Amino acid sequence: MSLTTTPPKPATGHQNALAIENSLTAGQLPRFAPLFILLGSFAVTSALFAIIAAAGETPFNIAGAVFFGIVLYGVLIWVISRIVEGTRKAKDRLVTALVATAFTIALLPLISVAFTTLVNGLPRFDIQFLSESMRNVVGPGGGALHAIVGTLLITGAATVISVPVGLLTAIYLVEYGQGRLKRGITFFVDVMTGIPSIVAGLFAFAFFSLVTGDPGIRFGIGGAVALSVLMIPVVVRSSEEMLRLVPNELREASYALGVPKWLTILKVVLPTSIAGIVTGIMLAIARVIGETAPLLIIAGFTTSMNYDLFSERMMTLPVFVYTQYANQGTDTQAYIDRAWAGALTLILIVALLNIIARVIAKVFSPKTGR
After folding, report:
1. CA-to-CA distance for 64 and 62, rounded, in angstroms?
2. Which residue of 17, 170, 257, 359 shows the fewest CB atoms closer than 10 Å?
3. Could you tell me the pLDDT band of residue 239, with boundaries at 50, 70 and 90?
4. What span, in angstroms and rounded, lies between the C-alpha atoms of 5 and 41?
């Protein structure tokens, strides 16, 4: 009796392709599963915090809901991935969730401030608030038009002063500066970066008091000068870093064609770095637009409209928020509502400026291609 074995039949091409396809797709979560798990986690924690807020008659804690939501997401994605995809992929998803958790923790203050300002500012953020001043208003009503105009005028004047000075200083440090003068300018720029804002206000107040001989001078251009003291080092530092990122090969190619240095800077270096420079300028504006102390000292505050930077007191949004909250009248809630609406307006202005900066940077950035 002989034992014979039948050799296995070779797999066909279709069977091999099917096996490969199954090995690649088996044990994987659907593409949008992490997103659905994240949204579900936020929904669960938001519902829990909403129930707690309703039971205790306290405001909804958006920061807590977001934090515990991202933590719940990390736990769920690890457990589900371990069951479906195995230990190795589960570890990868867990590390990704931990990175997302760290990022969310860093954003929690911003999320909390934005949510609180939005909730408290929207009830008073209306046409009346944006179209009226506080002249002869001691109770409900009134608006912040005079503060909005003052903020735009003073910040615009500070930008006009700071951008040419800061940009030209950065060009000198990168393209021309050397030796002790360059080191001295760099040192003073670093020192100016850490100057407290109230010191800038005191400098502007003392300077204009000495120049005009008026010890009680208050006007808008003084506030612009104070803000420019704070803006210039930010513009210098950001512009300097962007100019340094321009490859030297571009400069050398321009010099090889016989183009003078000043024209190379104007036609090659600046257009190449314009996107980063504009972003830095917008960051500098966002840095100073919310300053209160220097403007309270040199620009003062008023309840009336003032379009003249060189005459009389001028109100700004940060000072408006401060005065509304600090000097409450008989109708306390009306003052608090105006303060929150002013804070919301200031945040929206900063957000709008950043959007404009993104658009400008995208339009003027050098186009790359093959």
Report:
1. 5
2. 257
3. very high
4. 58
